[in-house]
């Protein structure tokens, strides 16, 4: 695997050189992880001017849970205990006779930027922009394999919950139980805080679980995901509690299901991100739910749970093959609740069967 | 409570005006929460030039789980869906004829700073520095009451774990069980990722729980904390598994205990932070463990789990009364394991009985 990381760093170094920068300083943790395979707290990566060097905040020995970092990562590891690793990196870049250093202006704070300038005043600080994020967009098959396992784990955790008694339990306890099951099945942890919404809370995006208990007749919406080797997936489902859904519940569910299916079916290489959003959004819009909709109906996933591309009305750009995204429209009626259906899929060409669904739990309206 | 927040904002506004700035833009989430009582994801707070305004990323209606945000917080709430709330705030400040805006350069990214300048080119962007962090240092009695409850919850969760069978269980499962118990006892969640280290992993700071199982003869070190209404505490203890600790275990435990006690006893209003660190560190240093020690032996807690003051050799400043801090020296012997003992205490004058210990679980070496 370490060849993969070396190849990613080589690509970044080439892009950087093409833009006239001798070196790049990577501070965003997910980007450091993408380029090295690990990211101890506070670590930053200096790519060029000579070797790649990982600067760690806390561990001068560069030792990790799994052993010596430099041997694992095949990069030089230098500790900067007590100081800012980014400042130590700029110092080294300047002493290595780099005249310019590209930094991640979308992540680096103004304060750290000033500190870099102050330690190396002759070094020109350029903007790397989202160069690493762009490299991260299209996943290789090993990354997709991690996402596939993450999705399997989430499906298992959700499936087990559905077999248990739900009435009378609180949102918080259901969320905790799901997170425990994720870890039981091999997740490194939840991919994001698990959301469980009952009754009037159902259908809300990122609802924070409360002490409300599940009641007969409720909608129950659940959104969870596993983190497997750093890769994060997402699944959201809505169920009805009791034997017979009310007619408004069936209508609303069918509507959101139709919107979500339209979004999924629009996922093809070359499709504009805004068109995928429009496919899902217009179904809800024409039923009169346009105003209450979230700003996006989906987003990329990978080393972060919410990364590019965004599926939103103002999004630029087109989808490529091997880009994993969520499709997650929802409607929430204040005071009544609502429905949200969320899958993680990988964009694939039609010749390969179209989008690959990673989260396979049924999307029928189950009455539990 | 909303009067408390208004008073905090008024103090900030005065300080800001004294520094010649008509308005301040607060972007760091814990600071926004300190000044308003809430912090929806992405929200930023504009203090001055006229009213205080909270700009939210996602919710144009300013609605929260508990109802309308503006009514709860007594600040104007404006949604900036799709855009950067900080940019919307700068736009408003400029149109309100502010000529300067103080920003948190230690939190704001270079990219956002450029975006603010671009939307309001006539607005001078000054540095607010850690003004809000300084206001947050000394806690009022309501804040300390939240920390006291957080500590009680952590003590309860830890106490229950000690009554259960430990041998054969993995670090990850013990950590998850502790987190579930925190929530069972009323925490909003863990204050930070719970750390459980067994055998050779014991005594490590922030060890990430692995699949290693507890064995007879192991040291077991546990570090956990509860988040109660946003306030976060920390407790760390080390136990020995089995009936009779080995003599090296007893010696090491006694040494770390002596260091931790020395640190606790040094906590008095007016004491230099570096002297508190030295009190604990010198005990371990003179026993030959100096080189392997962490950069600090304690830190402030509050709305963040690691905030000022730092108890470290290079720390500046002195302790005040009503400042809650951790005292957490530890020694880890590579390949063998080690000991870490961690308490949360509030600095109090000697006349009031000296430091108030919030985490009261016993620090005897228990054989479990």
Automatic annotation (TrEMBL), chains A, B:
* Originating species: Streptomyces cirratus
| Residues covered by the Creatinase N-terminal domain | 8-138
Q: What is the lineage of its organism?
A: Bacteria, Bacillati, Actinomycetota, Actinomycetes, Kitasatosporales
Q: Which CDD domains match?
A: APP-like (cd01092)
One matching Pfam family, short form?
Peptidase_M24
- Peptidase M24 domain: from which residue to which, for each copy? 146-348
Q: Which InterPro entries match?
A: Creatin/AminoP/Spt16_N, Creatinase/aminopeptidase-like, Creatinase_N, Pept_M24, Peptidase_M24B
Superkingdom of origin: Bacteria
Q: Where is this region: Disordered?
A: 187-213
**Any idea what this protein is called?**
Peptidase
Q: Which PANTHER family match?
A: AMINOPEPTIDASE, CYTOPLASMIC PEPTIDASE PEPQ-RELATED
Q: Which residues form a coiled coil?
A: none
